[in-house]
Design a protein that fits this description.
Elements (H helix, E strand, L loop, with lengths): L2 H14 L9 E2 L2 E4 L6 E4 L10 E4 L3 E4 L3 H7 L10 H25 L12 E13 L11 E3 L3 E11 L5 E11 L5 E3 L1 H29 L11
Parallel strand pairs: 4-6, 5-6
Antiparallel strand pairs: 1-2, 2-3, 3-9, 6-8, 7-10, 8-9
Helix pairs in contact: 3-4
């Protein structure tokens, strides 16, 4: 399965299940395990991460909720408050660059050089930030002030594969609310800062997760308490 389709399919696990229902116990040959860091985690039984010393990182895929732009514009007070598709694409491009920089920096700092080609010691890391919604994007209008409980929300998906065989080794899904600190005035600058904090947290969690997987390798999924 193409990485983009695989990441999207993994996200559907989290978004399609009722709040009170658990994700399926298995997924594409992986087994659901309990995690204190990510909302949903699947691992390949007996996967061994100890040999991976480098990372081949795929550029992140960022996607807003399908109807977010239309819904936002429908509620806009005037034309100056509306957002056109080009502005949304520019925001996605900027967010993609920042997200990728954080991930590359986090893995490099942890001692995992970024590889450009597959190899026996190279782990392929693919990421996506999906179902993005933003409370107060910058429209250039000074009319009105947006007060909201958060800056927005998004769902993070990370997929780990052996870079040579393309064997799927693990997936994790983690929805988060950005800037969740009660009713505050929301601006473009504060939103970028709040989403940056979430991006950085996901990068650190991914690095810490790989370190943990190395210590557990070969992974005994039966020995990890399941949800």
């Amino acid at each position: 399965m193409h990485v983009a389709r695989s990441l999207l399919a993994a996200t559907l696990i989290a978004t399609s299940c009722p709040a009170a229902a658990a994700p399926p116990p298995t997924w594409q040959g992986l087994v659901l395990v309990k995690s204190k860091k990510m909302d949903v985690v699947y691992l390949l039984p007996n996967a061994d991460f100890r040999s991976y010393t480098q990372i081949m990182y795929d550029p992140v895929q960022i996607a807003f909720q399908k109807d977010w732009l239309q819904n936002y514009n429908d509620q806009a007070i005037g034309l100056s408050d509306r957002i056109d598709p080009g502005e949304l694409r520019t925001a996605i491009t900027q967010a993609t660059k920042q997200f990728d920089n954080y991930f590359a920096a986090a893995f490099t700092k942890a001692g995992y050089p970024i590889a450009s080609v597959p190899g026996p010691n190279v782990l392929r890391v693919s990421t996506a930030v999906l179902n993005v919604s933003v409370t107060a994007p910058d429209t250039g209008s000074s009319a009105g002030t947006t007060v909201a409980a958060s800056a927005g929300q998004a769902t993070f998906v990370v997929e780990l594969r052996d870079s040579v065989s393309n064997q799927l080794l693990g997936q994790a899904i983690d929805p988060q609310i950005a800037g969740d600190y009660g009713g505050s005035i929301r601006t473009s600058a504060s939103n970028w800062s709040d989403f940056d904090d979430v991006f950085k947290a996901w990068a650190q969690l991914s690095v810490a997760g790989l370190t943990k997987l190395k210590s557990l390798s070969p992974v005994d999924t039966n020995g990890i308490q399941k949800k």
